[in-house]
Automatic annotation (TrEMBL):
Keywords: Hydrolase, Signal. Residues 1-20 form the signal peptide. SUPFAM superfamilies: SGNH hydrolase. Pfam families: Lipase_GDSL. One of its GO terms (molecular function) is hydrolase activity, acting on ester bonds. The keyword Methyltransferase does not apply. This is GDSL lipase/esterase. InterPro entries: GDSL, GDSL_Est/Lipase, SGNH_hydro_sf. The keyword Iron-sulfur does not apply.
Length: 299
């Protein structure tokens, strides 16, 4: 379904039962073909990191080091699409440490984009074709987690900084930007059992609403940008609400040690949605990556 408003074309891909991932771009821009892309730069937090070792530019084995029980969505996505994978995401990263009083040794998305990206790629001979490069940002879980206990800033200020980071990428030739909203962390074992769950729910909904507006607005502002808004909130909720469709038997708890389920009276890990209190299993990452691929390939 195409909706035309002002000078922006919006393509809404209706996945039954899902809200909507959306593309915002100028009518004048050329068409997009996922198959023509050859590189992905990704920024974010533990949901995205693959623990890139910058001095050697290599990734450790995900069976040894991962925030899930194996590969994450970036691995599934870049392998399936044969993309060169530069993953600068970092555990516990918010948009900007100072805004939410995150520990300063965490490499925020702000630093990933404005320090690491230029240092390791722009000011360096790393070859990538800008027309064939995708950029993804998935951030907000840590911002909300920090804000729920200590309202050090407003969501509006967070979005303002987020927007600057997208503009930074745009001014360094990024044309195809994937923005991913916050999944339903209010249903995670970390938050669901507590009184704060409804406050988390409201904060996430409001953050996602502001991100959507910002994505639309930035596409209107910049002529040559294409913004893919991925609705992780709905994609995760679809899995949580239809566990049988995906083969999950447990979408509320997690096994204390997924490598030794029998010792803890747990089912094998494939049956779980959550690998720990705030992170999803590799199976969730696989399905999420499939949705991202489906959306971008039909774009
Ligand atoms: C993963 O960990 C195992 C056990 O510690 C080790 O033998 C192996 O070399 C590690 N793999 C990589 C790629 O680091
Ligand atoms: C670019 O950065 C990488 C990572 O630090 C390094 O291995 C490579 O030698 C650099 N290339 C140039 C041309 O400086
Ligand atoms: C909120 O964060 C500020 C800045 O780090 C700190 O001074 C204050 O004590 C915090 N308040 C609570 C209730 O944690
Ligand atoms: C989910 O798994 C955890 C860990 O095995 C267990 O404690 C919990 O009771 C399970 N929940 C359901 C609804 O089966």
């Amino acid at each position: 379904m195409y909706i035309l408003f002002l000078n922006v074309v919006i393509l809404v891909l209706m996945i039954p039962g899902l809200m909507a991932s959306v593309i915002f771009n100028h009518r004048s821009s050329s068409s997009f073909h996922l198959k023509k892309m050859d590189t992905l730069f990704s920024f974010g937090d533990s949901y995205t990191t693959e623990y890139l070792d910058l001095p050697t530019m290599t990734y450790p084995d995900f069976n040894n080091v991962s925030s899930t029980n194996g590969a994450n969505w970036i691995h599934y996505f870049t392998e399936a699409e044969h993309l060169k994978n530069w993953d600068l995401a970092y555990n516990s990263a918010p948009i900007e440490n100072s805004l939410v009083h995150q520990n300063s040794n965490i490499i925020s998305v702000s630093r990933q984009i404005t320090e690491l990206f230029p240092r390791y790629f722009l000011q360096n001979d790393t070859k990538y074709c800008k027309d064939k490069t995708l950029y993804s940002i998935w951030v907000g879980i840590n911002d909300i987690g920090l804000l729920v206990n200590n309202q050090t800033t407003s969501l509006t200020s967070l979005m303002h900084r987020y927007r600057q980071l997208i503009s930074y990428l745009y001014h360094h030739d990024a044309k195809n930007i994937v923005l991913i909203n916050i999944p339903p962390i209010d249903k995670s074992p970390k938050w669901a059992p507590h009184d704060t769950a409804s406050r988390i729910h409201d904060l996430v909904k409001e953050y996602n609403r502001k991100l959507y507006k910002m994505a639309k607005s930035i596409a209107k502002q910049h002529r040559h940008i294409r913004v893919f808004f991925i609705d992780a909130w709905s994609i995760f909720n679809h899995m949580l609400n239809h566990p049988d469709m995906y083969g999950f038997k447990n979408v509320t708890g997690y096994c204390p040690d997924w490598r030794h389920p029998e010792e803890h009276g747990c089912l094998p890990i494939e049956n779980y949605f959550w690998v720990n209190d705030l992170h999803a299993t590799t199976k969730v990452h696989f399905h999420f990556a499939s949705e991202v691929r489906r959306f971008l390939s039909e774009a």
